[in-house]
Design brief:
heterodimer, A: alpha/beta, FAD/NAD(P)-binding domain, eight-stranded mixed beta sheet, 24 strands, B: 246 residues, 42% helix, 2% strand
Chain lengths: 586, 246
């Protein structure tokens, strides 16, 4: 028995960053908006105040704010010759759950992709000739210049702390000389750096590189955003990623947008309610609304004039497949689009151990770091290298939470007295560099529905088929040695290089940057949505999130995810509401 | 007697309440909005899940083995305290008795296959059951080869057996010995370094040992340390000696 509810103008599926952005813009335009979130309500004083937010076991190791695999997980295999098995406990990535989504427990590293990242196929082919075989890299269909105002607005909503490098064509010392042209500075100055960043910056400059402060959603000073919401100065407590901020110092939907939304009469939010399908009109020309299940197991049909998918990319893709919208991708023929171009992030790094100096990395913040961008995107000449894309090299000091971080030099056993002593000797004297590499789309990396495993409701789990590609391997082999060279110049006793070799392993934590599956593009033949993030199949269905990325760049995705959501919201308000049809003719 | 019972009932009630907050899926769906503002509620704080301190999973033999294994993974020695001083065994016992030991939040539907190393935990047993089966096999192995349970063997023999399991030279019949070893090591490190509210890291011995200041949240005065040591006494979520009688 499905209960039919009264229709609303807009229903949002999921209520994290993009849900909050859409809700704010669409309620501001006068629409009646309902957000449906499968996790619980979360706010700072109730769920992560400073009296108990710093609980490493609870929030990270016992997944306090992540999706529970018991509720929904996916199966994984490296390639089609293997049998995919369920991810019974999370490892390499940690999907969020509840109000605020991953925006509650991110680090706050808030980059803009480079202008060339949005035209990765045409730009690289023009400069270097044809791409490697089976690379299904595509242009986004939207350009950096079109997104620029939206990057700028999100940075102001968040109060990003950073140093601009290129404002209206004027280059500024100390910023990123490679960044796309900005219309304005960051709203806040950079965070204060620690010993590790000072050493990294000095060693980088010795090599002729141009280090700049990582753009941080951690407040370098008290701040009031354009919506009138107040944020407080960061206290460098070292509990950002995987944790909520008790200080109102990290931008999250809760600390930037939700307090305003909750005062608007045309906004409603349902929690602990899981959307099951997007429904279509009988002629399959429009979305008619969504069905969802509440915590009592009651099923409802929520009609809506506009449906926006705002869940995590993996969930958006699965919802499209379960709803039968769009043609599922077939890696054999290359036909179909839903589930196509799943990408990730190619991470490597270097550990540096000091002898006399103390790094004291428990004094840290999620986006406290210095970065060099000489080897990112197409900032360097790839002629003869056999790969496209790149990586930033950064020295972040995010934390020294001891269950997660107790690094020891190479050759030390993994337990026993020798291990214990090495942990003690190095605990306060360690830092690391991270090589944050792009992940380029490949024909054989994709998402589809699993033929065997089902969720608690008997519906197929999603299946991920993914491994690092030739482009990935060449990229990481080329750039990791540069990080090694910087690390050697930092004055430590010894270093350990953590190469990215072998097959993708779904267990060790790498990063929660899962992209693709509902990609955007210029034609319905090779993308799920058009340049305004509007479904090619159902014009009143819009999709947000990193699932839109045709491939992933060498940066953290949130800045670009948010800019795309604002861009799409603007198109809904200024164009779609007038025409109620396709914004791009197929 | 009535007083004892009511105290127990109160503890159970407390347990049920904190459990409900710890497991969002047990909460009811709720609607917010319509301009009502942020839905802050008095006494709604989502306090940490401790379990009740006398909640235990292991029997006496199992507990002896857990103590002995943990003491080899993080030994007590001249350099400082180990798993024994930190009471890691109590931490693991309490974890196994709670939602973690039951794999309550994990996807545990079959079919079960061994899987590849890149596919992670594929045991059909939740952690507590995996421990129970593996500990029985470990003691049976030690009894068959040395005539004593694991906890009765000299340290060098114990180290040899653990190395054999880690290197997959010693295997068990009912469960993967390697899966057990990896999980045990993970849980031991958790118990050594977690906040003392969970029963391990007793008196914050592990934090003192490595120099971690614990659950502090304001280091603004220390950002410019410039490579000098910051030496702060650790603080737990329960505070620290001198702050309370805990």
């Amino acid at each position: 028995m499905v209960t039919r509810l009264e229709s609303v103008d807009v229903v949002l599926v999921g209520f994290g960053w993009t849900g909050a952005i859409m809700a704010e813009k669409l309620t501001d335009a006068g629409l009646e908006v309902l957000a449906i979130e499968r996790g619980p309500w979360r706010d700072t004083p109730t769920h992560f105040p400073t009296t108990f937010a710093q609980d490493e076991l609870r929030y990270y190791w016992r997944h306090g704010m992540f999706q529970e695999t018991a509720q929904d997980t996916l199966t994984f295999r490296n390639n089609r010759s293997q049998t995919a098995l369920p991810m019974r406990r999370w490892g390499s990535f940690l999907p969020g759950n509840g109000v605020g989504g991953g925006g509650v427990h991110w680090n706050g590293q808030t980059f803009r992709f480079l202008p060339s990242d949005f035209v990765a196929r045409s730009h690289n082919e023009e400069r270097y000739g044809p791409l490697l075989e089976d690379m299904t890299v595509q242009d986004y269909g939207v350009t950096y210049d079109e997104l620029e105002p939206h990057f700028d607005y999100f940075e102001k909503i968040c109060g990003i702390s950073g140093q601009a490098g290129n404002v209206r064509g004027e280059f500024i010392e100390g910023g990123n000389p490679f960044e796309g042209e900005r219309s304005d500075h960051y709203p806040n100055p950079p965070l204060r750096m620690t010993f590790s960043q000072d050493r990294f910056a000095e060693a980088s400059r010795q090599l002729g590189l141009h280090p700049f402060p990582g753009p941080a959603a951690n407040m370098s000073r008290a701040y009031v955003n354009p919506l009138g919401v107040h944020l407080a100065p960061c206290t460098y407590c070292g509990f950002c990623e995987k944790f909520g901020c008790g200080n109102y110092s990290k931008s999250a939907p809760q600390t930037t947008i939700i307090p305003v939304l909750m005062r608007r009469n045309n906004f409603r939010l349902k929690t602990n309610a899981e959307v099951l399908t997007v429904q279509q009109t009988p002629d399959q020309s429009m979305a008619s609304g969504v069905t969802y299940l509440d915590a009592n197991g009651e099923e409802y049909f929520q009609p809506a004039d506009i449906v926006v998918l705002c869940a995590y990319p993996l969930s958006n893709t699965r919802l499209m497949l379960l709803s039968g919208i769009g043609e599922p991708y077939d890696p054999e023929t290359g036909h179909g689009v839903v589930g196509k171009n799943y990408c990730y992030q190619v991470m490597s790094g270097v550990d540096i151990f000091f002898e006399d100096e103390y790094t004291n990395e428990f004094v840290g913040a999620g986006a406290l770091g210095m970065i060099v961008d000489e080897y990112n995107g197409d900032n360097f000449d790839h002629t003869g290298l056999g790969f496209i894309g790149g990586a930033y090299i950064g020295c972040w000091t995010t934390h020294a939470r001891p269950i997660e971080s107790h690094p020891v030099p190479e050759g030390v056993p993994s337990w026993g007295s020798e291990w214990k002593k090495a942990v003690r000797e190095n605990f306060l004297k360690h830092t690391s560099l991270s090589v944050h590499g792009a992940s380029m789309a490949h024909r054989t990396n994709y998402l589809d529905l699993d033929p065997t495993y089902t969720d608690r409701l008997g519906r197929p789990l999603m299946r991920m088929t993914y491994d690092f590609t030739l482009n990935d391997r060449r990229l990481t082999q080329h750039i990791t040695p540069i990080a090694e060279e910087i690390a050697r110049g930092m004055g430590g006793r010894e270093i350990t290089v953590n190469h990215r070799r072998g097959s993708y392993d779904s267990m060790p934590y790498q990063t929660t940057h899962n992209t693709g599956g509902t990609i955007m593009g210029s034609t319905p033949v090779d993308s799920v949505v058009n340049r305004y993030c509007q479904s090619w199949d159902l014009p009143n269905l819009f999709i947000t999130g990193a699932g839109l990325f045709p491939q992933n760049a060498g940066y953290n995705p949130t800045g670009t995810v948010a800019a795309l959501a604002y861009w799409s919201a603007e198109a809904i308000v200024n164009q779609y509401l007038r025409t109620e049809g396709p914004l791009v003719q197929a | 007697m009535a007083e004892g019972l009511s105290r127990r009932a109160a503890l159970q009630l407390l347990f049920m309440t904190t459990t409900a907050f710890a497991f969002p899926q047990t909460l009811l769906s709720r609607e917010y909005g319509r301009g009502e503002g942020m839905p802050w509620g008095a006494a709604a704080g989502d306090v940490p899940y401790y379990g009740i301190p006398d909640q235990r999973f292991f029997n006496a033999d199992e507990l002896s083995a857990v103590r002995a294994i943990a003491a080899r993974l993080i030994p007590s020695d001249e350099d400082g305290p180990g798993a024994t001083e930190a009471d890691v065994a109590t931490f693991i016992d309490r974890q196994m008795a709670g939602f973690y030991g039951r794999a309550q939040h994990w996807y545990m539907q079959g079919p079960f296959e061994d899987g590849l190393p890149t596919q992670g935990y594929q045991s059909e047993h939740p952690p507590a059951q995996l421990y129970r089966l593996a500990l029985a096999e470990l003691d049976a192995y030690c009894d068959a080869n040395f005539g004593l349970p694991f906890s009765g063997l000299p340290e060098n023999e114990q180290d040899g057996i653990l190395t054999g399991i880690e290197d997959e030279e010693i295997t068990f019949e009912t469960v993967s010995a390697k899966t057990f070893f990896d999980l045990f090591l993970e849980n031991t490190i958790e118990g050594f370094f977690a906040d003392p509210i969970y029963g391990g890291n007793r008196d914050m011995v592990a934090w003192r040992y490595v120099g971690f200041p614990g659950a502090r949240y304001d280091y603004r005065d220390f950002v410019g340390h410039n490579g000098a040591r910051i030496d702060l006494p650790p603080v737990s979520l329960l505070g620290r000696p001198g702050w309370s009688r805990q």
